[in-house]
Amino acid sequence: MSTLHLIDHPLVQHKLTLMRRKEASTNSFRRMLGELSTLMAYELTRDFPLQDIEIETPMEKMTGKVIDGKKLALVSILRAGNGFLDGMLNVVPGARIGHIGLFRDPETLKPVEYYYKMPENMQERDVIVVDPMLATGNSAVAAVQQLKDKSAPKSIKFMCLLAAPEGVKTMQAAHPDVDIYTAAVDRELDSHGYILPGLGDAGDRIFGTK
Q1: 149 assigned to active site
Q2: What class of enzyme is it (predicted)?
Q3: Which of 27, 103, 145, 166 gives a 20 to 30 Å CA spacing to 50?
Q4: Which residue ranges make up each domain of the chain?
Q5: In angstroms, rounded to a whole number, what is the distance separating the alpha carbons of residues 112 and 83?
């Protein structure tokens, strides 16, 4: 079974509470999401492997440490996942970016892929899949499965702002090798699949749409 990591740093929880408020403007919501994703990125990269390299400072030669292997890939589940990218790139500016587009079929309620674009050499990269909300878990499960089937990266982590218990259970059952990182696990889903108490539709609040 994968591990659920709750990122409970005081700054993360403070910003999340401000974002939840219904009166938060699009501008403030987007800005705080960027700040929060920067903070969360530190936790997700904490266990990345390092390798020694020889460098020369202005004073002398020394052995320093850098992240081992190909550059990290951040994979956004469109469209709301894009709200995480700028903040995470503050921490890992050399990361490559991939996108997966999914929509829910109104009849089957199953996720259907409409877009898939990844960097080269994905099999040599560690990947962080980002989507603000892990609600039912169906889109996240489908996105990770497509990533495994088409690109086979070295490792995959999943990062979200909020999770519902139902989504965590679904994701862990489908992908027991993918750890989940979130700022909060909320109470439940409503009859329409929205997280309660949640913060509404993350995509609409990021982009100012309805």
Answers
A1: no
A2: transferase
A3: 145
A4: 2-45+71-205
A5: 21
Q: Compute the distance between CA of residue 177 and CA of residue 156 in angstroms, rounded to an integer.
A: 8
Separation between Cα atoms, residue 61 and residue 163, nearest integer Å: 47
Residue 201 known to be catalytic: yes
Distance of alpha carbon 141 from alpha carbon 144, whole angstroms: 5
Q: What is the assigned CATH class of domain 2-45+71-205? A: alpha beta
- 151 annotated ligand binder: no
Tell if the pTM clears 0.85, that is, is over it. yes
What residues form DSSP beta bridges with 112? 103
Q: Token pair for residue 199?
A: 């913060």
- Give the span between the Cα atoms of 129 and 131, in whole angstroms: 7
Q: Coil, strand, or helix at residue 77?
A: strand
Active-site residue, from 20, 31, 38, 201: 201
Residue pair 193/136 in contact (Cβ under 8 Å)? The answer is yes
